[in-house]
Amino acid sequence: MTATRDARLQALHDENAAPLLRYVTWLTHDFSLAQDIVQETMLRAWKNPKILDADGDSARAWLFTVARNLVIDERRSARSRHEFQPEQLPELPSDDDIGRHLDKWLLSDALRSLSVEHRNAVISAYYLGHSAAETARRDGIPEGTARSRVFYALRALRLALQERGVTE
């Protein structure tokens, strides 16, 4: 008996699903919502054995009526009234530079906490792009000392950033 019932439901679906989907899409202007409503309509047809036994026109009229009522129920629901569609959001994300400015502020604050030699070493190596040899010539120090200052300056900078809440 369930095999014939399933076959009748399959026939009902095959005959009416496409026109029903077009109708509900026309009503809602939302294809994914229309798919959900058609699925719910077919589920209700499956639960109602009288519809599976009805003739083609009666079953079709019942399906379209149920789908229309589901659309109305969806529009009346609290979810529909209180949820915003993406194009209706009151505040859409914008491309602002706040994060970049806050990062600059945080980094400059951490750099100010370093000693003058360490701060100059970091600025020379990472902001100005100087090599250790160029930094050594400019500051009048051995090249090994310039490299050592960059190494220890980076450790101190990492610690200063961690103290300000920046984690690795």
TrEMBL record:
Q: Which UniProt keywords apply?
A: DNA-binding, Sigma factor, Transcription, Transcription regulation
> Key word Flavoprotein present in the record?
no
Q: Which GO terms describe its molecular function?
A: DNA binding; sigma factor activity
Q: Start and end of every RNA polymerase sigma factor 70 region 4 type domain?
A: 107-157
Any one GO BP annotation for this protein: response to stress
Pfam families named among the record's database cross-references: Sigma70_r2 (PF04542), Sigma70_r4_2 (PF08281)
- Its domain of life? Bacteria
Q: Where is the RNA polymerase sigma-70 region domain?
A: 14-80
- Tell me which family the UniProt entry assigns to this protein: Belongs to the sigma-70 factor family. ECF subfamily.
The name this protein carries in UniProt is RNA polymerase sigma factor
Q: Which organism is the protein's source? A: Microterricola gilva
